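Forgive a beginner's question, but would it be possible to get any protein sequence you like and the tokens describing how it folds?
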Amino acid sequence: MFRVAFVYLIAAWLILQVADLIVPILGVPEWSSKLIFLLLALGLPIALILAWAFEVTPEGLKKEKDVDRSKSITGKTGRKIDFVIISVLVLALAYSNFPRGPRPSSDAADIALPVPAEDGTHSIAVLPLVNMSSDTETDYFSDGLAEELLNLLAKVDSLRVAARTSSFAYKGGGQNIQKIGEELGVGHLLEGSVRRAGGRVRVTIQLINVADGFHLWSEIYDRELTDIFALQDEIATAVVKALRIELLDEEIAAERVAINPAAYDLFLRGRGELNENVAGSLERTVDYLKRAIELEPDYAAAMALLASTYLDMDEFGSLSITESLRLSGPLIVKALELDPNQPDAWAAQGYRQLRLDQNGLAGESLRRALELAPSHIRALNSYTNVLLTQGRFRENLEATRTLAELDPQNPSHISTVETSLANFGENEQIEETLSQLRERHYNDPRFYDTSATYYRNSHQYAGMIRDMLRTCVLRPADAWAPGNISSALFLLGAADVGEQWLERTRQVNPDSRYLLFAAYQRFLMRRQFGALTELMRDAWMREATEGNYLGLGSALMLDGKPAEAYKLLKESLEKFPYEPETGNVSFSIDGALWLILAARAAGDDALASELLGKAGVQISNAIEQRYYVLANQASPAAYYALAGDRIRALYTLQQAADNGFAVPADFETPFFDELKDNPDFRAILDQVRDNQAAMREKVLALNNLLPKQDSAWPFN
């Protein structure tokens, strides 16, 4: 009986381990694993009772009392069970040594994400200061001073500070204090007014307890504008003392270098323009900041903000990625030389390194920014991307939740959380949530940026394009939306309309990387691999990012030039680390898969085998964390095909097709050459083509799909 119990327990353990691996792949609910555990637990006493009451004999199963002891074969049965025990132990040992995904680096321990105190004691929102000056056009100064105070308070490690976007949503006043505090999730509000006259400024400040609406502290300050930084220090320190927070000497330190008041004024004007987030804002911000730096050549804060603006101009403005990287680099270096503790500069550095696919370095820079300012929204937002590249998907979800808590009035962060949940298959209510957000933030392009990402990841291209059409209205000078619309239309086989959006993207910004993405899909769908190779070669020669290495390498493979692809992708691997076991990943999994093919063609079986193992670790990690965006796409299927696991490759392809995957070109690559004649594969490919046709019909039925020169066409 004891042997039976031992075999049962080991077999149950193996079943649970396999279930933990298979349940995410099958896409069944997480509680399925708990159900399996419960059934196995209930089965143990039943197995023991059967083992005690019955015995196996040559004539079959008999009750113990009916067996002649002289003819019992329990000895032989026992030896068989011993053999079974040894076999199960060998299987358990083999499984325990099977790659189970990377053990993420301990970098996460270096960052303590801001967590709200349950009673709100150490949390605050800085509301816009009321402009009491006679000139209403000087709102930028009162807003800028409030933001400076917010940034100073964000440096305090034990103080949770609501983000500027959410705090400034209450500009204009009139709202109930308790309601504002509840919506922002803070225990205190800082409010007041600013009156500026000539070279002097009067600032009135009140610190309010949200719970009862009483003032904890208030003060009136009269200062010369030349003392503005000392005034900011004084106010921030007084607020912290009023909150009874133990303060480190270095936690609040405004820029000690004396700044020309005119330069400071230009800096505030520039940041005010940036926060407006309307057409032309980025260009006007650059103009103000450049003039500020001309007046004050050692203005570190202005340099950091200008660098960030240049980087945004590639994403949402009129610069190419090459230009944005070229212009931002020296500014960041100079800003950090002038002020090594400037969190905005470290945040800009991290964002720039992400754009260069230097993910490890980006993580270091962003962690430094968050050490200096734990509530730094831009740094935390960029750091969520670092966590994704490192395969730390659950930590990424928690970081996006923290973003939404710090900036609850920013629709971008809220919809990012919903999108992240959907990436884990937790999307039961996401459509309803996005519908509510769309109604509340109809004229805010930040919502559409992230909602479109959700629809793309879930293969709902009609929803993606619908929301991007709205972005085209709200940000007509932005190449992001038209470029992505064009790419999606090419992927769906709607080439005629795709060409029109490609031209629209070129008109908006001929140097945009989104134009490159759209042109890539255009040549790929047309199977014009020679033209695709030349397109990507030109991009790679201009900027040798990991993405451009991958684009050119895959184009060369498709163009029948594996030797050149092998040399190029191997060079990329030497520049960009690929260590999924430790989370140090800048080389993409798609790059690894293409290099495996190229290495095999070049006879470098050792490199192909090494990369195959690392890719397996990366995919296993995504499956274990139930990260469906990676686990249910074409890359895992390509990996399984390269590993010779046809059954799992076909299963993963079928799963993608059943989930609405609508890009047959991703299944028509050399990764699946050995499956081309398999009838199951052909049936799956036909299903994906049907998905594509159905989605294309939905997209072409959208109202006002064709681009117009007039940016104000109606929204679908």
